[in-house]
Design a protein that fits this description.
Order of helices and strands: HHEEEHHEEEEEEE
Largest sheet: 10 strands, antiparallel
Shape: globular
CATH superfamily: F-spondin domain
Radius of gyration: 20 Å
CATH class: Mainly Beta
CATH topology: Immunoglobulin-like
Number of helices: 4
Strand content: 25-35%
Number of strands: 10
CATH architecture: Sandwich
Distance between the termini: 24 Å
Length: 231
């Protein structure tokens, strides 16, 4: 009763901050066989903020991340939230690897979002959109799907000239993709953010329809595991 009385005497904004402020640790694990993730963007925010929304067109900031791994525009767009980028030593999160633990003081932020580009893809990314952070101390596990930003045709052609800046895959970090592909498709019917259909790939390293190796770069959801520790 004494604690309740003291809180009632505080200004409402301060009492709210004391009630909701918490610290969390976040770690992401790559569950795929042969895909790499660009540095993972972790954002704690209010319930009205979204880094992406399935079923809606991607923002310019999301497009920059999904097509080239550039998280800077999303960080700018998330002004006012707590944002951290897991800068893995070589810039990529390899298959079966886990990111460094990201420690976040969430303050009054109640929701968590996570994104990172998947390589090699045209505009595929791992995504967690507005997950409500538990208030009870403990460890929580969330599995993430691979999303398609809907901003680029999934032709699965490695772009060695422009690094994927104007269509094409920026590269295959494992140096295990092919060249000379004719392209899986030259059009997309769904231009909103949606669940990625996965790489098609083929087994030719010098021709075929795809530069992606179907023996290495195909995947099924989920593609990532997130462990959140509420302290």
């Amino acid at each position: 009763m004494k604690t309740k009385f003291l809180l009632s005497m505080l200004p409402l904004s301060l009492a709210s901050a004391m009630a909701f402020s918490q610290s969390i640790d976040v770690q992401v694990t790559n569950l795929t066989h042969g895909m790499n993730f660009t540095p993972v963007l972790v954002s704690a925010h209010d319930g009205n903020t979204h880094l992406f929304t399935a079923g809606q067109a991607a923002t310019v900031a999301l497009q920059a991340m999904a097509e080239g791994g550039n998280t800077a525009p999303l960080i700018t767009a998330s002004a006012g939230t707590v944002v951290n980028t897991n800068n893995i030593a070589n810039g990529l999160l390899a298959p079966s690897a886990s990111s460094p633990v990201t420690a976040i003081e969430t303050g009054v932020n109640t929701h968590l979002s996570i994104v990172a580009m998947m390589l090699p893809t045209n505009d595929g990314f791992i995504g967690l959109d507005g997950w409500k952070i538990p208030t009870e101390v403990g460890t929580y596990t969330v599995y993430l799907n691979g999303y398609d930003a809907g901003t680029e045709v999934n032709d699965e052609i490695i772009d060695t000239v422009n690094g994927g800046a104007d269509d094409g895959i920026p590269g295959a970090p494992g140096m295990d993709a092919g060249t000379g592909a004719s392209g899986v498709t030259d059009m997309e019917t769904n231009t909103t953010v949606h669940i990625h259909r996965g790489n098609t790939g083929d087994t030719s390293l010098t021709a075929g329809i795809s530069d992606v190796d179907s023996r290495i770069h195909r995947w099924l959801n989920p593609v990532a595991k997130v462990v959140v520790t509420v302290k």
